[in-house]
């Protein structure tokens, strides 16, 4: 396998500048990062250091101001909004701190949603299998308001992994959970990642979680200040 095929994520001198009422704000300032396929990267750093913005750039949800970004062989800089949406459907799963479940949809419907958007005929079959895998096979018809925080995050995990993404982006996935529940969710997340051989980027404020990753990087003021 060539080096190019081994590389899942490549950020080359990536900068992100946004405009606010106070003028331009430099969010990312020359990010260089190469992540190999199957790696797990922990991203730590203080609030406002650019961690979440880097995830949004990798997901194609935020257009870079300059630099090059290649994800799973796709040059995101050159893609249209429709192309980026299709790219995310096929390659990217995202798990947020706040779950982002649709309150009027059941657990099964939430987990099936990205598959339905992608036109998958097996959407509900795949969603059911993933909910079984996260221990929620008995809660398929329950709505988010009927589920605990840990159960809601399990639905979010099932939704993220159901399309079998090559890249999984996790932004503080235990931030709204108590310690014991958070540990169980992280064990489950790493288990699913290993089963699917997914490349994962995990943003966390908890150094012990970053230590579970293949390597970790520290961000400060929109830059990677060190890596290991």
Query: Class by helix and strand content?
Result: alpha/beta
Can you give the mean pLDDT?
A: 92
Count of alpha and pi helical runs: 8
Poorly predicted regions = none
Give the percentage of residues in beta strands. Answer: 25-35%
Order of helices and strands: HEEEHEEHEHHHEHEHEE
Main sheet characteristics = 6 strands, mixed
Radius of gyration: 17 Å
Q: How many independent structural domains? A: 1
Overall body shape: globular
Briefly note the CATH topology name: Rossmann fold
Question: Which architecture would the CATH scheme give at its second level?
Answer: 3-Layer(aba) Sandwich
Number of DSSP-assigned strands: 10
Highest CATH level, the class = Alpha Beta
Euclidean distance between termini CA atoms: 24 Å
CATH homologous superfamily - what is it? P-loop containing nucleotide triphosphate hydrolases
Task: Give structural attributes.
Rossmann fold; 29% strand; globular; four-stranded antiparallel sheet; alpha/beta; 228 residues; six-stranded mixed sheet
Description:
By secondary structure, the protein is α/β, with parallel strands linked by helices. It has one domain (3-227): P-loop containing nucleotide triphosphate hydrolases (Rossmann fold, 3-Layer(aba) Sandwich), CATH 3.40.50.300. It is 35% helix and 29% strand. The chain has 8 helices and 10 strands. The strands form 2 sheets. A 6-stranded mixed β-sheet has the order 6-7-8-3-9-10. Helix 4 packs across helix 5, helix 5 crosses helix 6 (149-161) and helix 6 (149-161) packs parallel to helix 7. The longest helix is centred in the C-terminal third of the chain and has 18 residues, at 179-196. The protein is globular.
